[in-house]
Structures are given as C-alpha cells and as structure tokens.
User: What shape does this take?
Amino acid sequence: MSAHIYLEGGGSKELDIRCREGFRKLLESCGFGQQRRMPRLFACGGRASAYDDFVTAHVNSGEGYVAMWIDSEEPITNIENAWTHLATVTNVQRWNRPVGANDDQVLFMTTCMESLIVADRETLRQEFGAALQESALPPLINLEQRSRHDVQNGLLHATRNCSKQYSKGKLSFIILGNLVPATLEEHLPSFRRVRRVLGDKL
Assistant: This one.
C-alpha cells in the first residue's frame, strides 16, 4: 500500500528540498525507512496548499494512506479529534472533512513546527551554543497549550545573541532533522500521536 504525507512547509525549490529532508531525517530517527517503510513526503509551502494537495490525493488515493502534517495553529482540546479542530480553529480558514477522510489522516505540529524545536533543549544547545538564553524559551510543561506566537517569539528571543539567530527556512529544517524523537515524545502529545498513527499505517 502506498503512503503519502503532505507537509506544511517549504515554498521554493530549495526550501521544498530542505523541508522534505528535515522531515525525512526525523522520521528515520523514529525508525521509519528501517523497521518500517518511509512514506513519500511532499513539501507544499503554505497551510492552504497542504490542505488542497491532501484533498486531491485523498480523492485519488485508492487503497493508499494519505495524510497531511500541519500546524494546529491553536492549542487542541483533543488531538484525536483532528477534523473537529480544523473545523473550529478561529485564526485561519476553517476546513471541512473530505468525504471518507478520518482523523488519522491529519498529523499535527502543535501548535507550530517551532514547538517541536523548542521541546528539544539539548539539540538547541548543540545548534546555538552557550549564548542560547534558555530562560527566554517557553516552559516545557504544557508546551502544546501555548500559542504559536509565544513559542516562535520565545525562540527568536532566546537566540538573539547567538552567532546565528533562529529563522524559518533552511535553518529550521536542519534543526528539525536533528531532533531526538524520545525527547519530543516526552513533552509533546501530538508527536506521540504521530508516531503511533504512522506506526499503525506504515
């Protein structure tokens, strides 16, 4: 059975490559491509494009597994009820569930990709060095209940005095590929769900 995941991220030829590479490395660290097969990854750019590409693929998927891996944008009351969240999220376009789609086809970065990055303090220290101001990062307790703006701004503030400051794009995808799955699972229920869902599907 084929497996395709449509990613929120990328936006140019180079960034699409970096995005796919970052997610591929993270999934390889989870054991996919070794114990389990690696899905085909598609960098779609913006959130709306990821949804549109997912819907098209879902309609034409046959017996294959098709999913999208996107920011939740807002904290989620119940991460298992993915389509309910997408139909009610307030600060972006609300999406309805396509006919025949189920909740396991929606994978979340809650509330944004930076939540994954902020959760792994050791990888951040290795990337940014001693000048990283960890006190500026949001606490790890209930990290997924913090707004994406708080998470993103905290990461920018924490790296402002480093030789390189955090930025979306090439650097963010490099860091993504270096994250430690066990650490992410410890702090992020949405990542534990991603591993469980993909483990069942692949």
Remarks:
- The longest strand covers residues 65-71.
- Residues 114-167 form one domain.
- The chain has two domains: 3-113+172-201, 114-167.
